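Quick note —
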Amino acid sequence: MKIEFKNINSLLLDPNNARFAELYSGSDKEDDLIEYLLYTEAAEEVAKNISSKGYYYPDAVLWVIKRDGDKFLVKDGNRRCAAVKALGNPQKYGLDLSKMVIGELPVIVYEDENELERRIQEQHTHSLFREWDRIAKALKAYEMHNSGSSEENLREIDSNPSQLIKLASFYYAAVKIAGDDLKKLLRRGRGGTGGKTIVFERLFSFNKQCGYKFKNKPSYEIEIFDKEKFREYITALVAYLIDNTTITHIDVDREKSNFLKRLKDYGFIPKTYEARKTDKQKEVENGSITGKRGTMKTKPSFTRKQVAPKLKRLIDECYNLDNSNFANAKVALARVTFEAVLKYVIEETKLKNKKFSSYDYFRTAFFDKKGNRRRYIDFGELRNKFIELILDSGVKNSFKQFDLDRLHQVIHNYKVGASPNDARTAAENLIPLIEFLLRDVNELISSLDTKKLV
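Predicted structure written out below.
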């Protein structure tokens, strides 16, 4: 296969793209697809990036399938394609950017669509899923789960795949009731009306009051035991969130099950459920972390003893920041927290009475090529060297997917601020990394290929 260049007008956007097809409720018209990709799938940022550079990278190829005539369906690269199309007439799509006509884009043409789908799955799993919204990840995880993928394989998408399966299962039941109104609430978009996925997830803790529950492993499927109550709940919650666009998961965390009382005027009264709660269930309602049943974690827990108090305060500060009001600060602090925890582990963990940082293995992170000690640690090098020590492939992938460069771009690009979704995703993806790094010292060492150190 070779890279070819195709006229931009011959490239068709794909409304059935796995990333957004389920949530997209517009028409097959190109203008509608471009509008959706710009403002719901962050193609606007791609357009800004291309505009600021003044050119399109010739190696950023699109993967396409031949269609009738001289047309080609874009299977991988829809956001890039939409961004270029929009730059040809920016005012039409509400972009405050200069007109920029790019006549052709680099593509690789595939003949077999099934082969291309496998190619996308094999080659782009990690980088692809990293940028997806949580609901899109959930729907893909659900599809893979039902196709026989193991829970271990699904950890390539997320460290807690059971929660994704529950979310997708809930979505398919709820969308039958609320349709496009629900889709608009779950996907990102302009005006702050979307991105409510986490609100629905937070309310999973009180599912029995709403007429449903989730099955245990390996299914995790939703089970609706009171169809009328579930219908009332979905209808009321969707209507309430449409009328109250500023509501976030913070409101649910603060009010817990009392949040459901807000839905009374919308026709929903929670079921009374007086079963005695276990200590673990009480922890869930208080926003604590649980493990086996896949409850959404709100902050990391760790078993390492005598962790420095300043480091604990830094972690708490990161997870106490509100995603909506302090998105930039939270993204910045997520990066700082990761680097601080990693530095602490490397400098304080001992193997054979010798600190990790004293081994030559990590020397390149602390010293330059001339042997001079760096003024600042090379955290990219430190991160990469540590990743190579990790034995578990799922954990290793989680570390690789935590993109420090991406966080750096969000923090330092004064033209583009972090979104609440950026902040939430960065903090959530950081949880399993901190938990791995700050596990009991002996457990951590047993999880690493320490032969590389010595």
